[in-house]
Amino acid sequence: TNVDEITQKVQDFFAKRCWQLKVWMVGEGDMSMSNQVGMFADVDLSISTHGAHLSNIVWQPPGSAVFIIYKCHVSRRLFARQAMEVGLRVFKSFPSVCGKSTAVNGQDMLDYGEHKADFERDILPVLEKAVAALGRPGCSSALGAEKS
């Protein structure tokens, strides 16, 4: 996997646009229900790989968005459907290059499936669409003006 690389590139993307970014690594820190609700209650956009932790999107405000990064060979659309049902905008990224699946079943694919994304090809175009759709382009330097 290249989770650290993708996380860094996403952080760089938002820093250039003056967006505040909270990074929450699943399983780290206080996972109490009140903290999870508080973390998602004021976000404009959440970004995550497809998985059970996406159930927190129900705490997001209507009109906000979720960006779901799918693993290779995963076709479940549960969280995208739930997001739309609670009034969230949904953006999806699928890996452009996947090897042959060795998973025995769909759950194996979710738990152990290949998870490597190409930031420029798989993630960046969807991030740009999400930011544009939310109508919050960020600071002026994000729009092509270089600060000297």
Task: Describe the secondary structure blueprint for this structure.
Layout: H1 3-16, H2 33-40, E1 45-49, E2 65-69, H3 78-85, E3 89-93, H4 106-112, H5 119-134
Parallel strand pairs: 1-2, 2-3
Task: Explain what the structure shows.
This is Glycosyltransferase 61 catalytic domain-containing protein. InterPro entries: Glyco_transf_61_cat. GO terms for molecular function: glycosyltransferase activity. The protein is 36% helix and 10% strand. Strand 2, helix 3 and strand 3 (89-93) form a beta-alpha-beta unit. The protein has a single domain (3-143), classed as Rossmann fold, CATH 3.40.50. The protein has 5 helices and 3 strands; from the N terminus they run H-H-E-E-H-E-H-H. It has 148 residues and is an alpha/beta fold. Mean pLDDT is 79; it is low at 140-148. The N and C termini lie far apart (37 Å). The longest helix is centred in the C-terminal third of the chain and has 16 residues, at 119-134. It has helices spanning 3-16, 33-40, 78-85, 106-112, 119-134; strands spanning 45-49, 65-69, 89-93. A 3-stranded parallel beta sheet has the order 1-2-3, with helices on both faces. The radius of gyration is 16 Å and the shape is globular.
